[in-house]
């Protein structure tokens, strides 16, 4: 094709232009909470290696209002991050048929999320009572 | 008979004339419309009555040809199936995002068409078949595996919705990868090994970060995001197959 004069508009700031893009950025940014919590656990592991007193001191330092608040925020963000993964789960799966009927995407999302909630509850119960 | 009610809408439209305008500008008109008028008909009213120089693509007027894709209030849509009545008091119309603008609402499709060609979008049979052997047979289940991906009308809305394509023009993009998946999942086809090169490439499926807006704007329910992300799994399988069996792994 002959070279014709065209105009290409800049893409900078694309994520601000549409609510769908903003939701995508929020989804991606919540991974920061996942990283932060992973680092926190890593620090805890380091303290544990240094001995029980250091570990206990670290636990006490976390049992203050600010760390508790930040961990609660992280829990919310991580829960949302996990939910967004279930939301896109159907996109990664081939069509699944049960009894000759295609399983709707909503059922795939719901079954994934429900399985995660049950697994989390079982883990919590095991942690509290075993 | 009752006369249809006529109202006015402020229609704001991007204008760009190559060689005259250094950059696009916006121009607005008050367009009279009835409740049954599409955005495309609004543009046609402008061209017929207000400014004959306004340039846009259209053909079938019924969401089949895929010509009239444009950004309507910032959302990629087909102008023929979008109605002016839903946008009172004002509507903003721009050419599809991420494409170079040729003139007004007309975008340059050359790159998009090249991407479609790059995936070998035709049946590559195992062995050539003569006419005497008759047609290929397929069960409804086999057809179901690719049918929705074959519904693409090449309107380009998914490329306008894809920020990855906007930032990297080399990305193969949603429609082309969905078309690739359409042929790869067809029971009559044996060309998967050749097409995996496109899938595995840096600008193949791995250029996608699953924003998912392509599937949201698709007027035909093709769900290109699904085609692309299923092929990330295919690409991963292909990689490990190649790693474990460097020779005779088939695809690559």
Write up this protein.
Chain A is mainly alpha-helical. Chain A has a single domain, classed as 3 helical TM bundles of succinate and fumarate reductases (Up-down Bundle), CATH 1.20.1300.10. Chain A has a two-stranded antiparallel sheet with strand order 1-2. Chain A has helices spanning 19-29, 31-50, 52-62, 65-88, 105-129; strands at 97-98, 101-102. In chain B, helix 2 runs parallel beside helix 6 and helix 6 (174-184) crosses helix 9. Chain B has helices spanning 39-50, 110-118, 140-144, 157-161, 163-167, 174-184, 192-200, 213-217, 224-244, and strands at residues 6-15, 25-34, 69-72, 75-78, 90-94, 101-103, 106-107. Chain B has 2 domains: 6-107, Beta-grasp domain (Ubiquitin-like (UB roll)); 110-244, Fumarate Reductase Iron-sulfur Protein, Chain B, domain 2, CATH 1.10.1060. Chain B is elongated, with a radius of gyration of 22 Å. The longest helix of chain B has 21 residues, at 224-244. Helix content of chain B is 33%, strand content 15%. In chain B, the strands form 2 sheets. A 5-stranded mixed β-sheet of chain B has the order 2-1-5-3-4. By secondary structure, chain B is α+β, with helices and mostly antiparallel strands. Chain A binds chain B through residues 1, 4-9, 11, 14-15, 17-18, 20-21, 24, 28, 88, 90-95, 97, 102, and chain B through 16, 18-19, 21, 23-24, 74-75, 97-102, 108, 110, 141, 144-145, 163, 166-167, 209-213, 215-216, 223, 225-226, 229-230, 232-233.
